[in-house]
Every structure is written in C-alpha cells, then in structure tokens.
Amino acid sequence: MSWGTELWDQYDNLAIHTSKGIEFLDKYANFIRDRLAIETEYAAKLRRLAKNYQPKKKEEDDNEFTSHQAFRNVLKEINDLAGQREVVAESLQLQIIQGITLLSKTLREERKKCLSNGTYLQQNLSSQLSALERAKRNYEKAYRDSEKAVDNYKKADMDLNLSRAEVERYKNIMTAKIQQSDDAKNEYANQLQKTNNLQQQHYNELLPEVFNRLQELDEKRTRGIREFIIGAADVESSVAPIIARCLEGMVKAGESINEKEDSYKVIERYQSGFTPPTDIPFEDLSKQDPESSQESHYNNVQSSHLTVKGTISANRIKKRVGIFNIFGSNKNSLTADGQKEDFSDLPPNQRRKKLQAKIAELQQKIAQETAARDGLMKMKVVYEANSSLGNPMTVEGQLNESEHKLEKLKIDLKKYQGYLERANQIPMASNSPQANRNNLHNGHRVSRHSNGSTEDNNEDGDDQPDDGGSLSSSSASPESGLGTSHTSLPGSGQGSAHDNAMGEDAYYETEMELLQPLGTCRALYPFEATSEGSIPMNEGEVLQVIEIDQGDGWTRVRRLNNTNGWDEGFVPTSYIECTLYA
C-alpha cells in the first residue's frame, strides 16, 4: 500500500503529517540532549563526591585498616562509574545526537522539495482546470449567440416587410455566430481533452510520485527513530559489563573488611610496650618516721601525674629547652608532623615501628637514587665514548648532585639505624607509667629510674630521692635556672621550713651526692660549655649519666674531679653515645 494510490486526495494532510513527524524527531533529539546533560552532571557529581571523601593527609595513618582500604576502593570504583557515565554521555552525543541532527536536516530538505514539486503540480492542474472553465464559458456564450442569430434570421426571413438586403444581413450574422460557436466548441473540446489527460497524469503518475517520496521520507524518519532508540540502549549496554565489574569491585571491597585484622592493627598502633603496674605496697606508718611517711605520700601522689609515655605530665613540669636554646636542631628537633626526629616521645613499641618505617623509607630512597646515579654514570660513559651523542660535562653536575643526595641519605640511614639500635637496648617496660612507684621490699623502699635501674633506700632517715626527684632536679637546680617544679622533693620551692633551714646550696649539694648514675656515656665530639649549667667535655671522654634526655636535647652527666670531687652539668645528647645500665 502506498500513499500515492490510497491518499491521492490528502495532499494537505500528508504535508501536516510529515511536518509533525519531523517535529517529533526533533523532540526525541531534545530528550537525548537532556539525558546527556543529566549523565554529564551525574558523572561530575560522582567524581566530586569521590574527591570530597578521599582520605586527607592527616588521615593517612588510618589507611592501614581494612575498612578504610575498602572505602578507598569503593571511592575508586565510584570514580570508574563516573567515567562510564561520561562514556555514555559522549557516545550519545557522537552517535545519537549527531545522527538525529543530520537526519532531521535531510528530511526537512527532501520534504521541502517534495512539497514544492507537489505545489507546482497542483498549480499546473489548477491552471488547466481554469483554462477548461474559460473555454467552456466561451463555448456556452458562443452557442447562445449562434442560436439567437438563427432565430433572428428565421424571423427576418419570414418578415415580408424587410428588404432582401436586410434578410441577407441577418443571414450573414447567423453564419458568423454559428462559426464562432463551432470554434468555441472545438476549443472547449480541446481544453477538456487536455485537462482530462493532465488530470489523469496528475493523479495517476505525478502526484503519487510525490506522495510516495513523502512516504519514503516518513518511513526513513520512523526507521531512524527506531535505530536511535536501539542505539541509545546499546550505548548503555556497552558500558554495562564495566559497571558490573565496578559493582563487583565494591562487593569485593566490602568482603575484604576483616574486623579481627583491624582489631589487631589497633593493638599494633597503640600498644606502648609497657607492663601493667604492680600492686601498690602497704606502707606501715608505725614503722616509718614522719619524714619518710611524708615523702612516701608525695611519691604516691606524683605517680598519678605520669603520662602514658612514662614521663612527668606536661602540665606539671617546665621544659629545660628555654635554658639551652642552642643545639635546638639536634636529634630531638620536631619533624613536619610534630614528632621528634628520633621519635623518643613515643612509647617503646611505637618508637621502634616508626624508626623501622623510616629506615625502610630511606633504604628505598637510597635504592632509587643509586639506580639514578648508575644511569647517569652509564650515560656519561656513552657520551665520553661518542661525543656526538652529548657532552659528558652536562651529566657531571647531575652526577655530583646525585652523589651528594646519596651521601646525605646514607648519613640519615646510619643515624636512624643508631636510633633504632639504642631503642632496642631499652627494656620493654623501662618507661612504664607506673615504673616509679615505690615498693617496699624487706623494709627497704625501691625507687626505679626511668631507665630501669633501682635504688635501695633504707628507713633510717637517709631516704634518697627517687626518679621523680632526679627527673625534676634539673628543672629546679641552679644550673637550669628554671623555677621550682611541682615534681621536685617535698617542700622544694614551696617555702617550707625544712628547705629554708637546709638552704638551697646545701640541698642541691646533697642531692648531687645522692643521685645514682643511670649509665655511662662516651663523648663523640668535643664540646665547649658556653651557657650556664653546661660542662665541657673532650672527644672520647667517658662520663656518668645521672639524668637521661627529657626531650629537650640535653643529658645530665657528671665526672670525677680530683680537686673538687664531682663536676656535674648538661651536654648535648647528640654529642654522646649512652650505655644505660640494665
């Protein structure tokens, strides 16, 4: 069935229908454009979502947990999903939108040609019908005139009053009118035949050809819409396997979460390596003098102010850094994340892990820098062998810089290996928060130093200060220049009658005599004392350690002086190598 035969008289309706069809095609194109915009916006929002929830630099330490790793993998899959939505949008633009635009343009142009041709045919037929109508009217007029002329002639011929000349004139008029009628009849017959032929050709050949062409265009439009709809679905189907893999990746990420492993990593992260505190001993006040009882009470109170890291609470002690503002960039300088360079402010376990990670990082950098240096050396050899390839001197500067970096990395590696070695030498519970608690053993009070050494103090009134006193003595000593610390011995700096009677000089002199050494140290470099409270030392000199570094970069030492007995003061920790007693 064709429009040409079935819809031969529906020219106007076909023109309207084809126009609406092209408008519907444009409507579908707008639908795809809107969907494309949604896909693009969705992809952009997915990428922004994944970016906003990417772990921050300060959260990098939490990435070791399986839940955090799974979430990072989910964000990665979300990014991949966004990429696939962008692929869908791009494919819709290239394959669908452009195809619809081209088809719509073609259909409009072809429809315009067909309608122009149909309009021409219609006008031609209308012109022929008008000519036929004029010929018919002329024939009708000529026929009436001829009949009237015949009647007039007959009347004149029968009228005896008219002359022969008058009758002859009527006869001539009749003959002329009959001739005109015959001519008009012939013209009408010719126009009628011509019109019938044209009309037959118009409705049987010319107009059906135009209608069939319009039918082809409309079918082409309909077929195009079908292909575009299927194509849009194919675009979605083409990314479906990748989207499915993204979803599978999310499922695998969720399945990779292991709560037991995360719990173990929490232990690894926060385990200090300290041992739990021992039982608090019973102190029989009836067997102690009041002064010893007062000191014992003070030591128990002090133990409650020790922090998790085994040092005196930061809000209870004044640092000595303010005294010795030189050598501030030694091993205890702070790193970018606010920790000390040797991580000495961390518990033993955490310190060892940090040092091991730093050593592994340095070893990796050394391997990379070594490979780069070897490559530069090979390049230099090639350039020396063939100068056309390049100038060896251009590599020389890079090679020297690489050697310098490599040497600096090796120095840092050796330094951190030394930190790790010293950290491994410290007993596991040497910095326990409760390590300084006083215990009664066989009538003696045992005071444990921060390095694990102990002092036995009898009960005859010659009690020696425990490690709490040794830690704080430098904070309140004349050498340090600091004000009184809350962690010093009872009454120190508090204006007590006992302390005033004893006198500051006598008190500190007695304190120095009572402090037991925590170990020994050997001077790695010579040091000239340039500030109050410090003492000089020579390279290779062995001294006694009476107080370890409190985080300010200084260690309190003493040595035997043949003239005055003992010299005591502070030296830079980075200048000495310590060996602490077990």
UniProtKB/TrEMBL annotation:
The entry's keywords: Cell membrane, Coiled coil, Cytoplasm, Endocytosis, Membrane, SH3 domain
GO biological process, one term: signal transduction
GO terms for cellular component: cytoplasm; plasma membrane
Extent of Low complexity compositional bias: 467-485
Domain REM-1: from-to ranges: 345-422
Coiled-coil region: 122-201
Biased composition (Polar residues): 291-301, 427-441, 486-497
UniProt-annotated location(s): Cell membrane; Cytoplasm
Acidic residues: compositionally biased ranges: 456-466
SH3 domain location: 516-581
F-BAR domain sequence ranges: 1-262
Residue ranges, annotated region (Disordered): 275-301, 425-501
Stored Pfam families: FCH, HR1_TOCA, SH3_1
Family per record: Belongs to the FNBP1 family.
PANTHER family, per database record: CDC42-INTERACTING PROTEIN 4, ISOFORM B (PTHR15735:SF12), FCH AND DOUBLE SH3 DOMAINS PROTEIN (PTHR15735)
Name the UniProt record assigns to this protein: Formin-binding protein 1-like isoform X13
Organism: Glossina fuscipes
